[in-house]
Amino acid sequence: MRDLDVDKTVQLLNSVMEFELAGVVRYTHYSLMVTGPHRIPIVDFMKAQAQESLLHAQEAGEILTGLDAHPSLSIAPIAESHQHSLKEILAESLAHEHGALSMYKELLDVVQDASVYLEEYTRTKIGTEELHALELKMMLRDFG
Questions:
Q1: Which CATH number is associated with domain 6-143?
Q2: At a CB cut-off of 8 Å and minimum separation 6, what does 56 contact?
Q3: pTM above the 0.85 mark?
């Protein structure tokens, strides 16, 4: 085992927290913008994503507090494309999931072999984000 780089871990967890909070806003917005024949299941999916993003932000915040750090009050920037077709919403959602995946992989590089708990936490989040990306890819498949 190597020593945990607490400063880098705190910085990354705060970034994760800010990104996940932005996901709450993003997915809530998307749930309001979906129209068309697939509205109901997509709205339910987006609402579930918003709830999960909030849970992920809270989990990161709890870890930050446990590391004697201060959880961020900020939120990551949220780009508004003003493109609200179902295809665009799903594509933007996929891009967001890839962003989250990238952040968790960066965190894994820092905590791997330094903290079993943080490594398992991060691996679990990576698996979750990969699953969401697969789901979104399947949802996008019919758009060609």
A1: 1.20.1260.10
A2: 16, 20, 23, 125
A3: yes
Question: Residue length, the chain?
Answer: 144
- Give residues with Cβ within 8 angstroms of 87, minimum separation 6: 140, 143
pLDDT tens-digit profile of 4-60? 999 999 999 999 999 999 999 999 999 999 999 989 999 999 999 999 999 999 999
Query: In the chain, what is the greatest distance between 2 CA atoms, to the nearest angstrom?
Result: 53
- Which position has the token pair 């949220």? 78
Distance, CA of 12 to chain centre: 13
Residue 90 in tokens: 């799903």
So where are the chain's domains? 6-143
Q: Where are the alpha helices (DSSP H) in 67-85?
A: none
Q: Above pLDDT 70, what percent of the chain?
A: 100
Residues 6+ away with beta carbon under 8 Å from 109: none
